[in-house]
Amino acid sequence: MLRLLGWHTRAGEVGLRLLLLNLLWLLYTLRGGIVLGLFPATAAVHAVLRRDAMGHDGGTRPGLRAEFAAAWRSELRSANVIGYLLAVAWAVLLTEHRVLTDGGAQGLAAGVAAVLWFAAAFLFVVSAVVWMLAVHFDEGPLVTLRRAVLLALARPLTALGAAAILAVTLCVYYVVPGLIPVFGVAVPAMLTCAQLWRSGVLPGPARPARPARVPAPLSH
Fold this sequence. Notes:
This is DUF624 domain-containing protein. The protein is 76% helix and 0% strand. The chain has helices spanning 2-31, 38-54, 64-74, 76-103, 108-136, 141-154, 156-175, 180-183, 186-199. The longest helix has 30 residues, at 2-31. Mean pLDDT is 85; it is low at 206-220.
């Protein structure tokens, strides 16, 4: 009974935290005028959830809003570069697909359309993992994008798992759109964070080495 109560309490705490994170995501997206706030707010959600996954690191952790705001400011430039590069890539793929669809995919055009579908699937996988990599590694946006591409190529099952989480969440949101304003970005971010963290692709903080044991002197 106590264990069941503990699970319910924990579920309530997680649900409340995700709700607050999604509200902060909306607030800071608007703070950046949507155009400059959307991608940094997305990165900030992942940054907070990354700290949650790491657990207590011995330091004093700020409040949720203060931590979110600090992450939003620190990721402002890098996240926008990453986000808009991905947006341009998606726009090119969708435009090319629209042109082929309007003209009728026959012969060579059908082969190009198949390549575009593969490229779109690969870009979806990269988009699913890039934000967690962006907040975990202190690198520039281009290096982060390259890391996401390498992850998709070198660890396809791990990357596909993150993409599947995002795809399933989007399907659930499509079926139950009322969940979007409540949990929004926070739920897929939390699940992706957990999946990538457990896979081992995100190295954790170095732990201090244990002191060597000194053998006790032999008693005479």
